[in-house]
UniProtKB/TrEMBL annotation:
GO BP annotation list: L-tryptophan biosynthetic process
Annotated Pfam families: IGPS
Family, per entry: Belongs to the TrpC family.
Protein name (Swiss-Prot/TrEMBL): indole-3-glycerol-phosphate synthase
Catalytic reactions on record: 1-(2-carboxyphenylamino)-1-deoxy-D-ribulose 5-phosphate + H(+) = (1S,2R)-1-C-(indol-3-yl)glycerol 3-phosphate + CO2 + H2O
NCBIfam families assigned: PRK00278.2-4 (NF001377)
Gene name of this polypeptide: trpC
EC annotation from Swiss-Prot or TrEMBL: 4.1.1.48
Leading EC class: lyase
Pathway note: Amino-acid biosynthesis; L-tryptophan biosynthesis; L-tryptophan from chorismate: step 4/5
Domain Indole-3-glycerol phosphate synthase as annotated: residue spans: 5-252
Keywords: Amino-acid biosynthesis, Aromatic amino acid biosynthesis, Decarboxylase, Lyase, Tryptophan biosynthesis
Example of a GO MF term: phosphoribosylanthranilate isomerase activity
Record organism: Anaerovibrio slackiae
Amino acid sequence: MRDILAEIVEKKKDTVAAAKKALPLHEVKRRAEENTGNFAMSHRFRQSRWNLIAECKLQSPSKGNFGHHHSVAELAKIYEQAGAAMLSVHTDEHFLGRNEDVTMVKELVDIPVLRKEFIIDEYQIYEARMLGADAVLLIARILTAQQLKDYLYLAWSLGMDALVEVHDEDDMAKALATPAQFIGINNRNLKYFRTTIQNTLDLLPLADRKRNLISESGIHTVEEARQLHEAGLDGILVGEGLSTAADVYGQTESFARM
């Protein structure tokens, strides 16, 4: 069976190498450091006990193109109007993402934007700030313990927050060994991309409740969102469950207002 994550990470190495040739690290650093942020994600989460991170998602590696009629820009505007606390914007081609989408969405909305990317190199963190992202995703599974700490501190130095994503007990231990404020429990099997919210519920007892805990992926119904809310999560990150809904606005509003 395909290991989708391994395939994506392997291709990402080539993508980052090409990006470095097109725009050298020193220039990306210069642009990023001229555009430092103000920890918008942290400010937003302090304002509410429940937060929806709505993802502008057009396709997935396992299911292909969702075939809906909304663009990233349209989804971003709908999500904000319906009460999302934050947006997640893909920049990986496996999800039809583009770097330009982060900058474009930032110009359209007044809520924080997370760059959803498979980060394997510091270059991508400087690049995220250059694009205008307020936060980055750090996937514990694809980073060493040292990289995870280094990239977290780097994001902070640029005024960005970081969502550290975990999937199992080993990932959780790696995340808790850092001072990460935001930990996302991914309900998707990172090899085969199958999902169940039970993964969040199983890992929750191992988490530090002083951190902001977010359940990611595989959330399709209001009942599932409510179950996670009642379990003590601080928020959810939802992509497919929103972008493919018959009523995107109504589904977003329902998830945002637990």
